[in-house]
Amino acid sequence: MCGIAGIIGAEPLNSTHHEQVLGMSGSLIHRGPDGEGTFLRPHAMLAMRRLSIIDLSTGWQPLYNEDKSLVLIANGEIYNFVELRRQLQSNGHRFMSGSDVEVILHLYEEYGADCVHHLRGMFAFALWDDSRQCLFLARDRMGEKPLYLYERDGLLYFASELKALLRTGAVDFRLNPSAIYQYFHFQYVPEPMTPIKGIRKLPAATRMTIHSRPWSVTESVYWRMENAPPLESEPISTIRNELERVSELIVRSDVPVGVALSGGLDSGATAALAARAYPGRLTAFSVGYEGRPRYDERRNAQAIANHLAIPLHEVEITTGDMVTAFPSLVFRTDDPIADIASYGYDAVMRAARKRNVPVMLMGQGGDELFWGYPWMVEALHQTMRKQRWQVDGHPDLLDYLGFNPPPITSRWGLFDWCRSMGGLRSSYHQFQRDRRNPRDRIIFFEHSPLFRTTLDSIPGILTDAFRDPVYESESWQPFSVAPPWSGLDVHFTRLICETYLLENSIAQGDRLSMASSVELRLPLVDYRLVETVIGLRKARSDYALPAKAWLKSAVKDLLPSWLFHQPKRGFQPPANEWIQGVRARYGHALEDGLLVQLSILKPEVARAMSRSTQRGPLALLAFTALVLEYWCAAHIGQLSQSELGSVHSSESVRQC
Hints:
Blueprint: E1 2-9, H1 15-27, E2 35-41, E3 44-50, E4 63-64, E5 70-78, H2 81-90, H3 102-111, E6 121-129, E7 134-139, E8 148-152, E9 155-159, H4 162-167, H5 177-186, E10 199-201, E11 206-211, E12 216-221, H6 235-250, E13 257-260, H7 265-277, E14 283-289, H8 298-308, E15 312-317, H9 319-332, H10 342-354, E16 359-361, H11 366-369, H12 374-391, H13 397-400, H14 411-420, H15 424-436, H16 449-455, H17 469-473, H18 488-515, E17 519-521, H19 527-538, H20 549-555, H21 575-586, H22 594-597, H23 603-611, H24 617-635, H25 641-644, E18 654-655
Parallel strand pairs: 13-14, 13-16, 14-15, 16-17
Antiparallel strand pairs: 1-3, 1-9, 2-3, 4-5, 5-6, 6-7, 7-11, 8-9, 8-10, 11-12, 15-18
Helix pairs in contact: 6-7, 6-19, 6-20, 7-8, 9-21, 10-18, 21-24
C-alpha cells in the first residue's frame, strides 16, 4: 500500500519538475509513512511513499524487472499474487523481492497492457517502459484505489490524491461548474470529473499508455461488470464459494488485520468469513455514541464478536468530537464528500492505527451488490411502468402510477380506496416528471430520499454561473439506457456501483483509512464476486427478491439468527444532531464566504443558510455547502494548521 506520483513529458524534464514530484510525494506521506523511493529519467520522474504490508524487509519501491528495463510504482494489494508468482516463476521469471505488486512487472513482460486481466485485487500503478519510452497507468476494476491526472502542454502529472496535484503549483485552483452542480445533487462529484478544472480521475477499470516521443495518449476500458456471462448455477452455494475464496485471499498480510463491525449483516458477514480464513488473529472495532442508544452499535457488535470468538475494541464518539474535527475531516477526505457518517469511518481507522492494526476490512458494497436499498426496487418498478407508458403506449394511467384500487364491495372497501388516494398526488408528480424525460431515461436516484430532497432545491440556490444547462435540459448519461431496457437489474447494479458506491463509500473509505496510514480492504466489492452476482441476475428474471436475500442465505450458518431479522444497520451516527452542531459552529462562514465570492451560492441563500437553524432540506443543503466551503478554504490556504490537524492524527478518539 502506497501513495504514488509522477510526471511524464514530451520534452526532457528539469529540476522544477523534480521538485514538483518530491512535493507530491511529501504530501502523500500519510499513505506511506514507512519509506519513500524515486525514479528519474529524462522524460519520466516517479515517486512513491510506502506503507509496509507484504514483505516488510525487501518490498521497497520502485521495483524493477531483471534487466531494469521496466520500473514500477504501485498503490494497493494484489490478492492473488501467490498464485501468479508461482505461475510466472514456472515460466522462468526471477523475482527480486516478496512484494505482491512485483508480479505486475512480469505480467507486463508476458502480456503487455493485458496484464491487468490477470490481477485480482485493488490497485493503481504506474509502469515505465524504458525501451519504448512510455508510461503505462492502470486502475482496478471497482475503483478502490484512486489515480488523479492533469495534462497540459506535453506534460502529464499523476498522483494518488487530488491535494498532491494542487501542491505542484502547476494547477490553477479553478472550480469546474459542471462538477460543482453535480456535487450539490449527489453530495460528491461523479468521476471522472473532479471539482478542479483540468484535473480528472483515471476511471475505474481503465488503462492508459503515454508515449513521450512522439507524444501520444491512449486510454481504454478493460472491464465492464455488465459483460459478465449469465450464470445458471444455484445462487446460494455459488455466492458462498466466492465469498470464502475472496476472504481467504484478502486476509493475506504480514501485519495484523482488523475488521470494522457495525452490528449489521454486511460487516457481520465480512467478519465471519475473515475469522474462518484468519483464525485466532482477527480484531474487531466498533463505534458507539455516548448517550445515544438508538445509534449505538456496540451491543450488537459485541454479540457478533462473541459469537465469532474475536476480540472487540470500542470507539466512543461525541457530537463535540465530530464538530471539532469537521475542518480536518473535510481536508482528510481529499474530495468534497458531504456524508456526515464519514467521521465514524475516520474514528475507527484512527483507533485501528493506534492499536497497531494497519489493515482493516469493511463490508462496503453489500447494499449495492445485493440491493439493500429499498428505493432501488421502487425505482426499477417505476422504470418498467414508464416503459409501458412511453414505449408501448400503455393507456392505463392509474397502472402507471402504481395505483391499483381495491374493489369497492363494502364500506370498508370504500374506506381503503379513499385512504389509498393519499399517495396518488405524489405519484402524479412523478408521472409528470417522467413524461418530460427522454424515452431512454430510466428512473434511478429519483426514488432515493436524499437525492429527491436536493433535486428540487438546487436551481434556487446556485448562481447562473454554476448551473449546468446540459444536466438540466437532458438526462445525464449514466441514467440513459436504450429502450426496451433489457436487463434493468444489471443496469441498476452498475449505476449504483459507479456512482454512490464508488464516489461516496469507496472514495471516503480509501482517503480516511489512508489518512491514518491504514490499508482498507473490501471483500464485498471483489470483482469476481461482482461478476458472480451479475451472472446470476442475468440468468433469472425475478426482480422482486427481498433485500440481500442471496447474501443472507449464503451466510446464515455463520451468524446469530437474530441478526437476519433486525432493521437495516450500518455506521449510522446521530446525523441530525451532528449536522446541527456543524452548522451552529461553522455556519457563519457561508455568509460572504468563498462560495459567495466564487459566485457559486446566491448571496441571499448563503445568508439564509448561515442564519437558519431549521432542519429538513435546507439543513442538508447547508451542510453540503459547508463541506465545499471548508474544502475550498483548506486548498487555497485559508485554514490554519491547527484547523487542518495532523493528517494521520489519532487524537480525540476515545477507546473503551
